[in-house]
Every structure is written in C-alpha cells, then in structure tokens.
Design a protein that fits this description.
The chain is α+β, with helices and mostly antiparallel strands and 175 residues long. It has two domains: 91 residues, Conserved hypothetical protein from pyrococcus furiosus pfu- 392566-001, ParB domain (Alpha-Beta Complex); 61 residues, no CATH class. The chain has six helices and four strands; from the N terminus they run βαββαβαααα. A two-stranded antiparallel ribbon has the order 1-4. α1 packs across α2 and α4 packs across α5. It is globular. About 3% of the residues have low confidence.
Amino acid sequence: MKKLEWRTEQRKVNDLVPFKINPRKITKAKRQQLIKSIEKFNLAEIPAINKDNTIISGHQRIMALQIMGRGDEIIDVRVPNRQLSKIELKEYNLISNTHVGEWDFEILELEFEDLKIGEYFDLVEKSNQQKSIKDLSNKIKNKFIVEVNCINEKEQEKLYNELLKQGYECRLLTL
C-alpha cells in the first residue's frame, strides 16, 4: 500500500461530505464558542478530508461555516495522496479528535490571568480547573520537580510506570 502523504488543496465548504459515523458531537454553547472563534480568527485549523471529500476531521468547523452562511466559500483542506480505507478513516477520525494533552494549571494561573478563562470553558470545567489550580498551587509550595527528556513515547511510558511503582507522583508531558 502506498505511503500516506498529505497536501493542502482547496474545496467548497458545501462540497464536503460528513463522515456518516462521526462519533464527535458538540453542544449548542460550544458551537456558539466555535462560531465566535471563527469570526475572530477565521479558519486557522483546516479540516482533513478523504479523496472522495468525506470529512475526516473538522466536522464542527464545517458545520459552523455553513451556519455562518459561508457554505459557498472555498477553503483549504488537507487531502491524502490516496483514498483511506474504512479502517484508516476510522482510525484517523479517532486520533485527530482525541486531545491527549492536559492543561498545565500552573501556567494557566500565572500566564493567562488576563483572559476570562470562563469564556473558553464550560462552567463545570472552569470550576474543576479553579479547584485544580488551587490544589496544584498548594502542592507546589513543598515540591521538588525533576524534568526528564525521553527519546520516544515508549521510553517515557516505561519511566513513568517505574516511578509510579516507586511511589512518586508523576505526570506525562509531551512538548
């Protein structure tokens, strides 16, 4: 099978076809936040599509553009050099919609205090984050931190598990 390579092409928004079994959904409130973001920053993160114009990632952005009356607009999209199989399409759909990162509450507290964080997160998330920020701030006062750079994800996971077994409090970071 030919190695996948991606390139940027242009397509009309209304020509893009939603993946029928896309497992992601969005609340009305989050959709409004997305629309406001697109109004302010335009389409900064471009959708990925299959060769047949099926959307792999970016369903919510495409829907927001259509709601905004921008369905006839030509936009950039990422397209593979060959049609993805059904399994590849499902895999990439999941991977591209899995946000594996975590918030660094210390940085949020110290560096993003000038933003109204509540505008970016649901109230429940904000409440949990504020609690986590306070908990983290209290814990950091008497903590010593060691940063270790690993050569790959496998090594990182192995070291993380070893340290957990030894009773250390750890977190994984990917830069």
